Automatic annotation (TrEMBL):
Ranges of biased composition (kind: Polar residues): 1-20
Species for this entry: Rotaria sordida
Keyword set, alphabetical order: Cytoplasm, Cytoskeleton, Microtubule, Motor protein, Repeat, TPR repeat
TPR repeat spans: 251-284, 293-326, 335-368, 377-410, 419-452, 461-494, 503-536
Entry coiled-coil feature ranges: none
Subcellular compartments: Cytoplasm, Cytoskeleton
Name by which UniProt lists this protein: Kinesin light chain
Subunit structure of this chain's protein: Oligomeric complex composed of two heavy chains and two light chains.
Pfam families: TPR_1, TPR_12
Function: Kinesin is a microtubule-associated force-producing protein that play a role in organelle transport.
Entry keyword Repeat: yes
Family the UniProt entry places it in: Belongs to the kinesin light chain family.
Amino acid sequence: MGNKNSTITTTGHSSSVSTKNKYKKSLPSPLPATSGSAAITTNSTVVLPHSVRRILQNFLLIWLDANIDESKKDFKNSLKHLRHIVASITTFTDSQECVNFLSEIKKEKVFMIVSGSLGQYIVPEIHTLSQLDSIYVFCGNQLLHEEWAKTISKVKGVYTDIEPICKAIQIDRERCDQAMISISFRGIDPLFMYTQLFKEVLLEIDDDDTKSIKELVDYCRLQNDIAEDEIKKIEQEYHHHSPIWWYTTPYFIYSMLNRVYYNIGEYSKALSFYEQALDISKDTLPPNHPDLAACYNNIGLVYYNIGEYSKVLSLYEQALEIRQKSLSPNHPDLAASYNNIGNVYNNLGEYSKALSSHERALDLRQKTLRPNHPDMAASYNNIGNVYYNIGEYSKALSSHEQALDLRQKTHRPNHPDLADSYSNIGNVYYNMGEYSKALSSHERALEIKKKALPSNHPDLATSYNNIGQVYKNMGEYLTAHSYVKRAFDIRRKNLPPNHPSLAASYNSIGSVYCTMREYSKALSSHEQALDIATKVLPPNHPDLATSLKHVTA
């Protein structure tokens, strides 16, 4: 079958392609007017108006509380504390207005602070929205609101003070900035050109080039995306710091660069950005700083996407070594590292090492996460993939069904993670000879992916390829050929010429031609698969042996 769907995590959270999810359910009416908020004790800033805007960050923060009073000192102090972490904060006192705003968000992830009494009504209605990442309940009665909050995985905690909320958001902000976003295969959009403007001005201007700084801040103000106090900070203080300081400091610039390069669809540019970030981080951070681990992880992510697994392994192991030295033994980022290393070993065909790494990740997650946390599903999914590869199909099926069950509880019905689970379950049924069940699972996966992904996304190719293989074994060869050819066309357009998935496509086409008794075409396809496999896979990899067998049979 085609590629299994592994889940890579960067800082303890599984990733997925996010899609717009319009919220159409009516909220209970009337909602309570009181918020039950705790006393706010911190230290003011300007709140951005809650007009719908396209911000240049990976995320935004929403605060819903019926008792918000922007004139009160405690509220201003809380905002000032939050603004050390987040450039854009949007506040609401009306629940329906907040939901309407949420429903218009297309790409950014949303962190949400909500009062206890409003939260108990609104959170159960909106928590499945894909754009809503994390929820922090701010209340005066912690015990009361923990009862309903503990049933919803996106609720990070129930708090009576703003300071622990800020700490939690800080962790999630860093994770959001660094988290894997699947590389899209669209062309360069205007946001990339804007990014180049920022990068060139901040890193390449002469020290006395005030004209360039003026152009930068003028551009920022025109966008209506960036907080005025952040713009003023650059305008007034640029010459007080080095360009490297501005590049690495946690303002909107780095967040914007990060997101653009993940989505720009050009591997070389993504790699160049992350390598530059690593060089800067090495110059400015101590040798075992966690941010260095994130840099190694991000570079590894690019190599993973182009199938250069030996390079990936070295980078992920460097990230793990740093995290082992700098983090507590049960830190979620360690689980993320073990998870990612397990995926690499699985792709290298070293299945015992892969299983060991994934089981270690699962053990850490069981100690630190809620039972229905999305990362738990990711671990079960990846363990299932290893069992699949070593032919233990009953264990593989059990693991994938556990992953699917968790994802059905925490995700909306058409979330891409559900497609991964259906696809993997379909692969297991295929190898157990239960082709009708396999076809049903793969078609369900394809249905979800079509709604969530661009028409030429490589994950669609995986589903087309898998469905083609099922039809081949059911004896419907022409239908099989149309599916595997469609998968091949997508992969050839969007993947590097020696990507392992292309080898898988050549083998799939070859096997269909073989069943159709078109042996010369079959041999040609298998030879092309072998040529790629020889270049990119280690000598003892099972897929290389399979390609060699096809050619010599």
